[in-house]
Task: structure prediction
Amino acid sequence: MNKRYFKAFIAVLLTFTLFFTSIETGSAVSTISPKVEMRASWISTVANIDLKPGMDEAAYTSWARSTIKELERKNFNTVVFQVKPTADALYPSELAPWSRYITGSKQGTNPGYDPLQIMLDTAHEHGMELHAWINPYRVTMANQKLEELAPNNIASIHPEWVVKHGTQYYLNPGIPGVQNYLIDAVKELVTNYDVDAVHMDDYFYPGVNFDDAATYAQYGADFNDIGDWRRNNVNELVQHINSNIKQIKPWVQFGISPSGIWRNSKDDPNGSETNGSAHYDSLFADSRKWIQSGYIDYITPQVYWSRQLAIANYSVLLEWWSRQTEGYPINLYIGMADYKVNANFDTAWDNPYELPEQILDNRINGKTMGQMHFTLRDILANKLGYADIVENEIYQTKSLTPPTPWNGAEEPKKPILVTAKNDGNSVQISIDNKKRKDARKYVIYRFEGNKAGDYSNPQNIVGVVFDQDGFATFQDKKVDPNKRYTYGVTSISYTGMESKNAEETKTKK
Result:
């Protein structure tokens, strides 16, 4: 291990009590997972990538429950659920029509239930966060006609806000009315739903040949370069979405997952040693500006390449992004290319350990706080058995989602009262914290015997539960009825801060 990696290793050790053994490619991995780590799965609804269309409420609810239960079993802690794929919504909205991806019918068809609320309730019931994923500018997918849109689609109401690019239609980011509409859509979402974050992905301006010269002439007088004007339009949207979210619910995070390259070093000395498509130049998204200006709570660059690819090397980009976020109030996660495993021209993806070892590289890096996996169907498909490796050798214990102390650093008090009741082959933990309002979640730790053990060791975490008006319950089904246990419960604040102390209780034999 070279000196640079040794220092990073020590940093991770101190922060997460994380231990590694050295590994060879394709060999078994021995590791204890960090206690704090983002482990998210994107759930893609656009084009029905992860969502079967036409389910009734019972079938959809069953699918949501089985999906969340499986991700929880695999020790994921977050789902990034796509709720606005194309100027539409997977929830009842005053500002957008029902998405055709939920019903399989024409846009605007009411499914008769609320997909977002069901997924949100299910995630929280299993102690997982839900980040509501939106695509702000995209109006249609390829070759879809404007005539197919619902009458209450914003593109139908304001056709003058729409620009065709290639075979798709987009809202024009340079029109102030578009920005105001998109901000209002996010405000509606955050006001009406108890989401943990709003998440925006990598679709901004669709390309350099976007037909907005007239808009630039009308609104771009302060800019000598159309590219700078376009980037400013996106910057303003990002800034205003974040500020409006925080005005409504200060703890709700705003995160963005741009494509993996900001700029190449050949075009900018601050860029990465890569030679791929850069979102600063091609999509007019200045992610570095968002980091440095505090516009977002987390950034998840989609580093969808292997560690062998020369033009866009995973290791190079991991180090570059970690340098950009260092010292700023932001969490860095990495977007993982699960969809490329055993399905790409780059033969590195034929190795089932490529992606698992990328996760280990994230941990060794010492500045990356976790990862998001694209996408659900690929995790479940488990090509080459890579997902089994992640489950059994990387995500072996539960983990807590990273906090955002810049949104509120105060630690909550421990729960007031915790009781444990033997119930056959399980133990029910009941939490009464109704006199306090500082807890959003609770972490349940279990120790064998009459004494509490190490609260820093994630192997002792058996569950996370969300607060329900000052109460919460947890059923621990993995116990030996012949053993006695000590349980400790800590509180987690709305910004993810854990209480210093735990309220403890013991079971009876």
Q: What stands out?
A: The longest helix spans residues 226-248. Residues 26 and 353 are 6 Å apart (CA to CA). The two ends are 48 Å apart (CA to CA). The longest strand covers residues 441-448.
